[in-house]
Amino acid sequence: MAAGLINRSDVALHLHEEIESISYLGEYYELNSTKGNSYTCQITVVATPLDELNLHFSPPISIPERKLQHTHATFVRGALNPAYFGLDGVSKIPELVATIEDPDLPFTCISVLKQHDENDFTYKIFSRKPMTDTLLDDIFSVRKETIRINWGAYPHYKAPEVFAPFILDGRHLYYVNAFENAASTMETSAVAAENVARLILSRFFSKPSVTSLNLKTSSDAREELHLDL
Description:
Strand 8 and strand 9 (120-127) form a beta hairpin. 19% of the residues lie in helices and 32% in strands. The chain has 229 residues and is an alpha+beta fold. A 5-stranded antiparallel beta sheet has the order 7-8-9-6-10. The two termini are 18 Å apart. The protein is elongated and about 70 Å long. This is Farnesylcysteine lyase.
């Protein structure tokens, strides 16, 4: 989904380069990266949670404190050990093994991500804590490859929710992830991003709001502005 949105946007993508500071210099923003590069732009959109980033803003911004729920995603190519599940054959293990939310259980779920052949699968494991090699060797009889990702999946929800502003500085510094206090999914993030794009059109370009889902209108002038986005 993310790749499709990026391709549709027709943007210049800078991979493996992190922005470490955003400064407003009167008529434009200056973005400085960890690679020593500097970028200037009239509009800046932050589209990542700020809760665990060391990103410097000048002048400073203020957002409510928010903690993220971490999910550890572990991807293993190999074969499950049926004895671990109290079974006598791999074929008896279901494609999805889900558990209740219990801190004494080592994982939340294990599911088949891809089948390569009869005895070779790639599994996806979600857990609240990192999966150690010792634990994985108990769960799997064969383990060819293992990839671990520590993922700040979504905010800790606590009513009443306090939202960060979508406009961080009263000018043109926007924050897509303020929406995550309501819901945190790929789909809702795409909606939040579209809402920010509409906000930019209405505030920066002083044009009437657009109505179609893909931000296209019958006006040639506005069509050019959408392509610029």
